[in-house]
């Protein structure tokens, strides 16, 4: 359980997140993922990173049960910091990060893929932000990188998800493949990038981040402030308690 690092030939690194049953990450899980990205990205031999997950889905967001079990706000502060660090590590990784998404990609998963350079998805992949239903806000910054503005707002207010095919239509998903072919397709794309001059690719990543119209780190941190505000009102505690009581499998 955790984030597993697999250093492949030709400078490709595959990071696999594995937190059963649904990859809803606790505080420790977000920090482990951030550290894995920071460590492997800093290695001079790394030329491309594939981010994938084991199990039923790519990511189900934060571990709501961990938050609900905390009578104060310590875990909330810690998990918000963990998400911030993980999303930032994806975005600021010196080499391209390719997210290979299968099953559900919810909440914090949107933060990861939205900050990735390239997204591949299996045919069963879905993407959504159920934050409003959880009494929280955040990752609209990253959803805005996946869908047009008004689609993002409709998804955010309703909590509805979209399919990989819809994101392929919007151009934010590079390729949709059968689930059994996803891992190989992501590595093949990573190897194609890794075959380029590594210095050129690293400078390309830096330059593309430099021309982004939105500072994703600052924008997401702004969103998190409203999550803290909602928690102070008590509405978030009620939403989390209802979530835990109903016993859904996905966060």
UniProtKB/TrEMBL annotation:
| GO terms of biological process kind | fatty acid beta-oxidation
Which keywords does the record carry? Lipid metabolism, Lyase
- Catalytic class of the enzyme: lyase
* SUPFAM superfamilies linked: ClpP/crotonase (SSF52096)
**An example Gene Ontology molecular-function term:** enoyl-CoA hydratase activity
Q: Does the keyword Hydrolase apply?
A: no
Alphabetical list of InterPro entries matching this protein: ClpP/crotonase-like_dom_sf (IPR029045), Enoyl-CoA_hydra/iso (IPR001753)
The EC number(s) this enzyme carries: 4.2.1.17
- Protein name according to UniProt: Enoyl-CoA hydratase
Q: Which family does it belong to?
A: Belongs to the enoyl-CoA hydratase/isomerase family.
Q: Which PANTHER family match?
A: (7AS)-7A-METHYL-1,5-DIOXO-2,3,5,6,7,7A-HEXAHYDRO-1H-INDENE-CARBOXYL-COA HYDROLASE (PTHR11941:SF169), ENOYL-COA HYDRATASE-RELATED (PTHR11941)
Which species does this protein come from? Saccharopolyspora hordei
Q: Name one Pfam family in it.
A: ECH_1
